[in-house]
Amino acid sequence: MKRALFITLNEVKLYLQDKGDLAFGLLLPILTFALMYGAFGGQTLFKATASIVDEDKGAYSQQLIKSIDSVDGISVDVMSAKEADTKLDRSDLLMVLFIPAGFSDNLTPGGQAELVFKQRGNGGTEGQILASIIRGEAENINQEFQARHLVAANLAGTGISDAAIVPMVQDYLTQERQQPAVSVSQVTTGGKPDFVNQYLPGIVTMYVLFALSLSSTTIVEERRRGTLERLLTTRLSIGELFLGKFLSNIARGFVQTLILLILAYAVFQMFTPLSFLAAMVITLLFTAAAGAIGLIVAAISHTERAASWVGVVVTMFMTMMGGTFFTIAKGSVLDTLSKISLNTYANRAYRTIISSGGSLGQAWQPLLVLAGVVIVGLIISRMVFKPVAGK
Which fold has domain 48-178? Predict the structure, then answer.
């Protein structure tokens, strides 16, 4: 046991001294999360560009465009009909608003006007939201015209001219918009922490699994060069060599995760002392399971390149199926596949502790699965562990 611990300590020492390993294990996950957080984490307002073709170029079409452009988060891109049709054909745009010629002329005498949405398929989620916003702005203009005609009808025969009615109605409508009878306010709660809770555990587990799976290439290289065989000429047994490699994988993954979670605690204040200890228990089980998989990959790989590719494929599969970047629908095919991903259970356990403020007892199911993988993986990896090439 003491010899196995010496191997473990030496491997961890080499890991901490290797600037390349440290950059991959620590800087890359931090950079990845920072980029995702900067791109999506602080965005709580819907933002989109409304593509509009104005074939009317009248007063009321300009009023509608100005009204759409004044909506928070919406910008307007006015283009020609030819340009819009070309972009729709190439799928550069999924939805375009066409304001037909005669739009203003039809509205002026109290007639009816029409707006046309041209779209590919269903117009996409963003297009549907934009269409809803545009309809709302068009409805505001419609209500303005209805109010004008209603007031004009009620004042018919009084001698009051339309020139006096229009500004008066406009003033009242402006006051109503500024101080509506029913106001709607929006309060954002937990926008940034939700992003942290959603993505940080997955990114941490992804890079830990990457590092431990790719460490299998080192074992393959040591086996090919005869390093492991020379170690066996000492008093070190195969069992002690295996245990040393296994513990070194756990130690490397644990140290890497510990540093990343400490940084997360310092930046986002997302742990209590008790929840941090609970997260370390999860980390220990996850790195043990990942370490066993790394040894299995090393055993079945004959070359460093093969070990590297197997490690990448396994890691990416477990990351995508583990719900790191998107939510997997219950009962779907992906949900079935996610059950064979280590990241599924590690992420679920982390989020129980971090997001829900739960305890290890509430995360017992994913922890039980991870513990089972550790036991089974340890048995299999010991059976297939090969310190000498061809044996």
Answer: abc type-2 transporter like fold (3.40.1710)
DSSP-assigned states of every residue in 103-157: HHHHHTTT-----EEEESTT-HHHHHHHHHHHHHHHHHHHHHHHHHHHHHHHTTT
Of 381, 340, 341, nearest to 247 by C-alpha is 381
Token pair for 343: 């990241």
What residues form DSSP beta bridges with 96?
118
Measured torsion, CA atoms of residues 177, 179, 183, 184, in degrees rounded to the nearest 10: 60
Q: Which long-range contacts (C-beta less than 8 Å, at least 24 apart) are formed by 228-237? A: 228/387, 228/388, 229/387, 229/388, 231/387, 232/387, 232/388, 235/3, 236/3, 236/7
Q: Which of 289, 282, 298 is nearest to 242 (CA)?
A: 298
**66-94 pLDDT, tens per residue?**
889 988 888 999 999 999 999 989 888 88
Beta-carbon contacts of residue 12 (< 8 Å; ≥ 6 apart): 248, 251, 252, 255
Least confident of 3-7, 223-227, 342-346: 3-7
The structure tokens listed for 36 are 């995702």
Q: What is the pLDDT of residues 153-203, one digit of tens each?
A: 666 667 676 666 666 666 665 665 556 555 555 555 444 445 666 677 778
Name the segment(s) of the chain with CATH classification 3.40.1710. 48-178
DSSP 8-state assignment for residue 94: S
| Confidence grade of residue 136 (pLDDT, cut at 50, 70, 90) | confident
- Cα 388 from Cα 391, distance rounded (Å): 6
Tokens coding 200 = 């940080």
pTM (2 d.p.): 0.61
Q: How far is CA 217 from CA 115, 179, 294, in A?
A: 62, 68, 9
